[in-house]
Amino acid sequence: MASLADVAHSTGFVDQAHLTRTFRSRLDITPAQWRNSRHVARIQDEGAVIRQEPVPPHQGSGQ
Questions:
Q1: More confident residue, 17 or 50
Q2: Residues whose CB falls within 8 Å of the CB of residue 39, separated by 6 or more in sequence, listed in order
Q3: pLDDT at residue 10 greater than cutoff 80
Q4: Nearest CA to 52 among 43, 41, 61?
Q5: Which residues contact 24 (CB under 8 A, 6 or more apart)?
Q6: How far is CA 9 from the centre of its chain?
Q7: Do the beta carbons of residue 19 and residue 11 sit within 8 Å?
Q8: What phi, psi does 14 have (nearest 5°)?
Q9: Residue 52: pLDDT band by 50, 70, 90 thresholds?
Q10: Which of 9, 23, 27, 30, CA to CA, is 20 to 30 A from 38?
């Protein structure tokens, strides 16, 4: 089973904490809370590579 750290690394984040901070700043929920609220299973295939562009840094509202 792939860990959140594996997912973070596969998607271009420095580490799990970086992914969690970015995810939470965008969605106001942690990745684990999001997964649990949607009954999403953990990734089963450790050999699978998730290919996705990293999330760009959060830009302020500019107000």
A1: 17
A2: none
A3: yes
A4: 43
A5: 30
A6: 9
A7: yes
A8: -65, -45
A9: low
A10: 9
**What is the amino acid identity at position 16?**
Q
The one-character DSSP state at 48 is -
Nearest to 5 by CA among 39, 36, 31: 31
pLDDT-based confidence at residue 7 (cuts at 50, 70, 90): confident
Structure-token match 């500019």, residue found: 62
Rounded CA gap, 24 and 49, in Å?
A: 23
Question: What is the value of pTM for the model shown?
Answer: 0.56
Work out the percent of the chain whose per-residue pLDDT is above 90. 33
